[in-house]
Amino acid sequence: MTAIVELTDVTKRYVQGSVEVMALRGLTFTVEAGEFTAIVGPSGSGKSTALNLIGALDRPTGGVVKVEGRNLAEMGARALSQLRRDRIGFVFQAYNLMPVLTAYENAEMVLALQGVDPAERRERVVKLLADVGLAGLEQRRPEELSGGQQQRVAIARAIASDPAIVLADEPTANVDSETAESLLALMEALNQRRGVTFLFSTHDARVMERARRIIRIVDGRVESDEKKPAHPQQPGTGVPAG
């Protein structure tokens, strides 16, 4: 297996006024290609901080964070920006879609920034939106879509550039139970059929149930790291809508 993410003895300290907060205290783990992994733990345990460091949205106080073998601390701002654009997909609990853009334009955004030919962009994005259950809704803006549909656009945007890994921070937090199950089924299908590597930050039991590996963090350290037995891949029956 290929290591996509490697954290070695990572620490993160924040200073809030006169108070020092240690968010991570020697965090160490590796994520390999094709994994469907959840980082779990109580509020304040450091799971979202870990995703921010892996996504090059923040820098550690100490230790080493590598993505595809590259030490993020040794990369400049431009290289980190390119890494986030090309190799890391992001799915946030608040969707973070551009409100003035259509579903198609939101999903196309990364490919446009990469300079992909317009004809190729259209072919890829139309197929991708169909794959996530949004065929026929390409020209709707976020306000015209349900929460679950907006999150599907966000997932399409995250995987449009074929990133090495998708970081999903509480992706089911703002949707109802039925929609959450549908979104999780979608991401699991993308993992199994496309080989997309997912790393979740979550406290949602539904995500934990579907994840094939659970890294539990308490007080900024790995308390346990459990891989579930492999299960047979289900035959493709299309991506559920909703």
In short:
Helices cover 34% and strands 29% of the residues. The protein has 242 residues and is α/β, with parallel strands linked by helices.
Give a written overview of the molecule.
This protein has 242 residues and is an alpha/beta fold. It has helices spanning 47-54, 77-87, 103-114, 118-131, 147-159, 177-194, 205-210; strands at residues 3-16, 19-32, 36-40, 62-67, 70-71, 88-92, 165-169, 198-202, 213-218, 221-227. A hairpin with a 2-residue loop joins strand 1 and strand 2. The relative contact order is 0.19.
Write the layout of secondary structure elements.
Elements: E1 3-16, E2 19-32, E3 36-40, H1 47-54, E4 62-67, E5 70-71, H2 77-87, E6 88-92, H3 103-114, H4 118-131, H5 147-159, E7 165-169, H6 177-194, E8 198-202, H7 205-210, E9 213-218, E10 221-227
Parallel strand pairs: 3-8, 3-9, 6-7, 7-8
Antiparallel strand pairs: 1-2, 1-4, 4-5, 9-10
